[in-house]
Amino acid sequence: MKRMIFILLLAATITFGVTADDVIEWAEKNGCKFPHLLAAIAYAESSYRPEVVSHAGAVGLFQFMPATVKDISDRLGYDFEPTDAQQATYAAQKYLEWLFKHFKLYHALIAWNWGYGNTMKYLDGELAPLPYDTLVFLWNVSAKYSELTKGVK
Fold first, then answer.
1. Quick one: which of 117, 113, 54, 114 has its CA closest to 83?
2. CA-to-CA distance for 52 and 61, rounded, in angstroms?
3. Which of 114, 127, 146, 153 could form a disulfide with 121 if both were Cys (CB 3.0 to 4.6 A apart)?
4. 46: left (phi > 0), else alpha (psi -120 to 50), else beta?
């Protein structure tokens, strides 16, 4: 019985070993200007589970698609393992900073979820409306961000 409890506790630690506070701390250590936003994105993407893989092939805490991992490596010069929560947090920071050079917040989040190319086509009127999954992502990020920043100055 004790062994069973230990195994369950170990599994819970592995599965739920990352928290919003972890993401915020890692982001702040890297000089991130929007650590709570990164934590909200991680929650919306994976519920803070760095080992999760989606049916579409997105991987890790921030649910990076393989093409995005390659793009971050090629364009931003950062090679990382998407299932390593700390590395993925830094990659997410770099990628979001890059998106902010092209978009304001709302459209940067759309680009995060739906892709840069789709967002550009959407803004040019070539694609509409936003996919349901993207709308849910926006709502989830907004709700979690509000929760995380309540009382933060």
1. 54
2. 7
3. 127
4. alpha
Please list the alpha-helical segments (H only) found in 16-128: 20-29, 35-46, 66-76, 85-100, 105-114, 116-123
> Nearest to residue 48, comparing CAs of 36, 60, 30, 31?
60
Residues 40, 144: contact at Cβ < 8 Å? yes
Instruction: Give the tokens for residue 1.
Output: 């019985």
| Rounded-to-integer distance, Cα 41 and Cα 115, Å | 15
Cα 106 → chain centroid: 15
Of 99, 129, 135, the closest CA to residue 117 belongs to 99
Here the tokens at position 119 are 């967002």
Q: How far apart are CA 48 and CA 63, in angstroms?
A: 10
Q: Whole-structure pTM over 0.85, yes or no?
A: yes
Based on its alpha-carbon atoms, the radius of gyration of the chain, rounded to whole angstroms, reads: 16
Residues 6+ apart with CB under 8 A from 102: 108, 111, 116
Measured CA angle at 78 (ends 74, 114), to 5 deg? 65
73-109 tens-digit pLDDT: 999 999 999 999 999 999 999 999 999 999 999 999 9
